[in-house]
Here is the input.
Amino acid sequence: MVTPLVPAERQNLETFALAETQLVDLAREGNERAIRMIIQRYNQRLFRTARAIIRNDAEAEDIVQATYVQAFTHLASFRREAQLSTWLTRITLNEALGRIRRQRKTTGLEDIDMQMNSHGGQVLQFPMSPAVSDPETELSRSQTRTLLEHAVDGLPVDFRAVFVLRDVEGMSTEETATHLDIRIETVKTRLHRARKLMRVAIEKQLAGAFSALFPFYGSRCSSMADRVIVALQSRTKA
Here is the structure.
C-alpha cells in the first residue's frame, strides 16, 4: 500500500540526492515520494535496457512499467549486496528476454539468434540535446540521431545490449558484465564487434548520400549559365 506524504517526510525528500538505502527503506514502507524518486532516477537506464532488447518503444515502456510493479511488489526480497540499479536492470532484462522467448521461441540471451535483422521496431530514443533556436542545427541533430538509432537497431540483440549499456548508458565493462550476467571478456568481445558492425552500417547508409554532396543545380545552375552568357556577350561587344 502506498502511503501519502506528511509534511516532515516531504521536507526530508526534497533533495534528489538521497542515498539509495534511504530510498529503499522509505519505498518499503510505501512512501509515494520515494517510489517516484526511484522511478525518476532509473527510468532512462531501464528504458534503454529494455529498448536494446525489444526494439519497440511502446513495448519497452511496458516492460519498464512491469519491472517497477514487480520490483516494488517484491522489494522485501531485494538484497543489499547488490545495487538497486543492478537488481532493477536484471528484472528488466529478464522481462524483455522473456517476451523475446515467447515471440521467437529462443532460450535466453546467450542463444538468441545472432543474425542481422534490419527490419521491424522503432528507433531508440537517445537523450535529446537542450533545445536550440536554430532549426537547421536541430534538424541536423535529428538526422544524425536517426542515423545512429537505425544502426543500433541493426545490431544482433546481444551485441546491441552490450553496446547500449557501454556506449550509450556509459557503464563500465565490469558493470555491463554484472548487469548482463556474462564474463568481462565476453563484454569486450561483443563491444568490439558491435562497434565494427556500427561502422559498417553507418558507412553503408552514408555511401549513397555522397553523390548528393555540394549540389549545384536548379536556380543556381541556371543563374551560372545566365552569368556566363552575359560575360561572353560583354567580351564579344568589346
